[in-house]
Fold this sequence. Notes:
The structure holds 2 protein chains of 2 kinds. Chain A is mainly α. Chain A is 74% helix and 0% strand.
Amino acid sequence: MSQAKVPVWVNVGLIPLLNILLAFLVSGLVFLAIGEDPIEAAGYLIYGAFGYDEGIGYTLYYATNLIFTGLAVSVAFKAGLFNIGGEGQAYIGGLGVGLVCLWFDSSLPLLVIAPLAIIGGALFGAAWAYIPAYLQARRGSHIVITTIMFNFIASSLMVYLMVNWLKAEGVMSPISRTFEESAWLPYLHDLFAPFGFEIGDSPLNLAFVLALLCCVFYWGLVWHTSWGYQLRTVGTNPTAAQYAGIDNAKVTIWVMLISGGLAGLVGVNEIMGVNHNLLLNFTAGYGFAGIAVALMGRNHPIGIVLAAMLFGALYQGGAELAFEIPTITPEIVVVIQGLVILFSGALENMFKGKIEGLFLRRAAA
Amino acid sequence: MTQQTHPYSIELEGISKRFGTVQANKNIDLQVPAGTIHGIIGENGAGKSTLMSIIYGFYEADSGAISIDGQQVSIRSSEDAIHAGIGMVHQHFMLVENFSVLENVMLGAEGGALLKQGIAAARKELKRLEQEYSLDVDVEAIVEDLPVGLQQRVEILKALYRGAKILILDEPTGVLTPQEADHLFRILKSLKEQGVTVILITHKLREILASTDNVSVMRQGEMVAHRETAQTDKEELAELMVGKKVRLKVNKDEAQPQQTVLSAKDLSFFDGQGVERLKKVSLELKAGEILGIAGVSGNGQSELLNVLSGITPMSSGEIQFAGQIISASAPKNAAQMRDLKMAHVPEDRHKMGLVTGFEAYEAAVLGYHDSDAYNGKLLMDRKAMLDECNERMAAWDVRPPNPHLKTANFSGGNQQKIVIAREVEQNPDVLLIGQPTRGVDIGAIENIHEQIVKLRDAGKAILLVSVELDEIMALSDRIIVMFDGAVVGEVTASDANERTLGLMMANAWNEGQGAQA
């Protein structure tokens, strides 16, 4: 009941902002402890992430992956499921994208390959999520455990496939041959150039637009379809779902397929957009970071885009920072990310009670 | 009460407790002499459990005082309660199932970081307790291997091990076989002889009469009577428990029952633990009548509603409804039952009837969310949902009439109106309705009752489950009483009175007494 009187902006704006500020404050202390000027460091970080074209491009490129995995975690969470397997689903999704590209790059134009690769990535990611989903729905195996295990299986499977089947001839490392250019998703700086917009070179590509479309898809699906209605009912009140005749098991399986599909789209950005070949470890932890993004974005697409951009900025700005100040290693940047996750995710409710109380008292006065 | 020579073992003065708008305990006085067995009876919702939770420190009373052995004490947690010498045996045991009896008993009283000494001390103390109170339990046995009767004894041992001088048992026989129950009462007697004070909470009159020295009766949050058990009988207690209430007035004409629309035959249901919650229940429901199901809650009514509405599959038996035969081998789920035009207002609107995080207009289509009325080709038709919600809110006087307000933020009565409106406006053939006015304010009760009668007069078949006896009597045309999962009696509304129904609900009814008023 008390929720009713607290202004919305407090919950969606003020509290997350306070949490992030606190995380940066503690990060500042870490910088002081290693003898660096936190203000100077913050300057590098912000400049690196947002100060110039290329920096912004990189930030958004990282954010693209995080939007996919953030949405994936979030949609499952809406049904009360904790999908920790975004990493593996993204990995296998990338395999799907890569296979489509390898098969069709010399025979079909981009306009055909791109949708096929998107479908391939989504299908492979969904298939990888299907097994844990089935085990949860029909056998009661806990999805947190199974999805974690499937990350490891995905990783081993990819090594096997890359080494034994997909490795390019005459190369010493486990990478596939480079795709023909007809299977390269265009970079945004290339797309904008003909219109007279000069933007700096960066890996930012059309997959970013796809990520934004996925946000719209998510929003429509979850809040505007009967299916999303069932999903949210199962997630918030399983007893009421049973009362309403909603098949919890079916919803579990479907939502995990969608979740896995969204995670699989990371492959579109990484494989088709940037690397242009199949390789190992391109997921680089985006699946796990997606959990933090979903948490911070409060399971809303707009929040997820903002949180993904924050994390993207930390990736990009952090790299810049490590480059500019050699004593700051990439590990320190990981510490900052960890603190942001800690304060905005795990300690989310630290201020909540107090601040809400403050507003309620003020409203009462 | 009995002699006043020594202080009471426990004495309550003016205990009151309010939850929101519900006054759960109103100015309760209670005096329990040391070394007696004291029974507390009352219908569900009479406030017994709240009172015991206050004594045991789960809740703090808004006002009033508790004295133990004449000393006023402040009990703010169960730790305080244990310290004051109060032990509690809950209806649902609080045991670690894969621990041994010994480990369970010493849980929370391990006596140091290393267990060895604690175990030795506990074993010695347990031996003494078992001998003193003749509580035979194998201390090395794993709890989950023990039958429930013995598990309960472990709970009692646990309390005694912590030095309890006052033992509270909440509905202790609910899970016991009659033999186990007899044994329990023998144990309680020997505890009493050793000077332990026992407080027994139950709704079973026979147990009260068979085992207690004194009995207190609670009704609607108040302590309405104290009796010496020897000076009373079950008729008086039943009447005190149910009360001679002013009859709820519901304007209704004689029912015009028509054809049978739903008939259930030998419905049984076993829960996850293998306990038979429904025992071969048969009933017929006719169009144009209200069939009331009376009973103290927890006697199978909820399970009956869930099985009839398709939420939980039955274990055996069959239902004939809308030309279909539904059985354990040919089940139908809640959505399919809804398609056959069965509507259901569940007993617990928070847990089942609503999704409290949803906005009102969303909660107003729960169960019907797939219907064409609310769906376009791809997306849900939000406008249609909102329009209809606005209409219903006006028709049913839901306040505030804001379809975007979160369901959780409506008052109980208005939430219930949202649920009832949703189910009734689908124009069902059969309406199952559980606790229609629980937690609903007086004004709304009248409105809801009127709507139910209107529906009956429109030729619908209505099955009403309520623990409010006056509600059952005011609305029903025919009344079935359930006890322990089985139907124990059926009376027509004109033959029904509080005394008969109260005795049936306590399973203290003998056929020989006849159904006369």
